[in-house]
Amino acid sequence: MIDTFLDKAYTARDADSTRALYDNWSASYEDEIGKNGYATPARCAEALASFAPDKTLPLLDFGCGTGLAGLALKLAGFGVIDGVDLSSQMLEQARAKDIYRQLTQIEPDAELSGEYALISAVGVIGAGAAPISTLDTLLHALPSDGLLVFSFNDHALDDPENIARLNEWLDCGAARLLFSEHGDHLPEINMGSNVYVVQKA
Question: What's the whole-model pTM score?
Fold first, then answer.
């Protein structure tokens, strides 16, 4: 019997437990979420592509997992994609796709280098995954006019702290909201997500 992990994915846990969950899930991850119609990577890639001024700029796929977001970004026309993730086993799955320039395992509190004008964080922030402080890390890493595409699934949207943190950036003018749309995330289990494109001021 194959273990299923989706029902465990949205439970709050510490970073070490999250890394262990995704290491253990890595081999069956794409099959399990694929059966549930995982739609957010393509939605995020298309949204970012519609605003990116230059698709040849290096793009950071933060929390890249097995590379599904990277594949969607590649199909949307982005040429140079780097990936980072907590899970070494997820990164091995991503490496097999041969779509990333480089892949790096990171720690939960890692600082980003600031060399990317384009960053994606698909399905990364929310219960059972990265905390909302990750949004601050990503936006701080962007240069002025840099673009971040990210998503909040319905579980993340249920936590008012997540939208509040986004609004802190928008209300003070530190970032501009270019795109926001609710749509399918895992339609087979009736879960949606909001996709956002934000530009740093």
Answer: 0.87
